[in-house]
Amino acid sequence: MLDRRIKLRHLEAFTTIARMGSLKAACAELHLTQPALSKTLKELEGILGARLLDRDRGGARVTPEGRVFLEYAGMSLAALRRGVEGVGALRGTGAMPLRVGTLPSVAAHLMPGAVTRLREMAPDVMVTLRDGPHAQLVAELREGALDLVIGRQGAPETMQGVSFTQLYMEHVVCVVRPGHPLAGRRVTVEALADWPVIYPPPRAAIRPLVDRWLIAQGAGPLGDRVESVSGAFGRNHTAATDSVWIISEGVVARDLAEGRLVRLPLDMAATAGPVGLMARPQEAPSQARQIFEQAVVLTAQALAGNPS
Q1: In CATH, what number is assigned to the domain containing residue 216?
Q2: Per-residue pLDDT tens over the stretch 132-172
Q3: Distance of alpha carbon 100 from alpha carbon 118, whole angstroms
């Protein structure tokens, strides 16, 4: 039987700490003092009779008992948010709300067409798009802040409690501005060390793939680098400098097609990874999500040259 002492504030406190990785960051997110947040967490652990988080100077880590509770706490918050938003939509515009997280390559390559197709299929679905790093978006999906995430499949440890439906495969590419000294030449991986590089940061889904690719090519770490997967920064910085930008192909697909960037002829087949739909597997999809997923699948097929 559900213990009625468990309140909404307990669920919000625990899921936010788990997502942010520290009490300090969670306090800022929830606009609470650290003593107040610690007290709320202690109350929840006392009610459940289990330690949910291990805390030290390095932050807060979810315990095995915490991982079990986090999954269901996230589902509960997600259902409650959908109910509140649904009532608000009926009293307002009548639109069906849907919150979607997108990784940068998807936001640039897939989403424009998918949203256009969605508006044709179901103009009463109101989509809120949120982009960000893989780990953050998946954490928000688990706790119910997002209904769906679209992007590269992450490492196995990051995908626990999340379903994945593949849409297509995507490579990482190295691109430069037109007129760059490397453009139009045969290039070796070792040559990249002679130029400034825009490199994926540690939390990016493509970071392990790029790291392994360099190791497999016998290349050392690229020291002169800025770490970012921001499309806006990468696009502008690459155009104005001699930097080499290492990024998912979807982020720069249009730039390559229209000649604003040039792809270096490097064999990066080893960086291929699946892009797909991530969701909470125990949850029945809403009508809005079902229509949106259909729009995404049709758009992905069209981009692949296989419209149905």
Answers
A1: 3.40.190.10
A2: 888 889 888 887 889 999 999 888 878 888 899 999 999 99
A3: 13
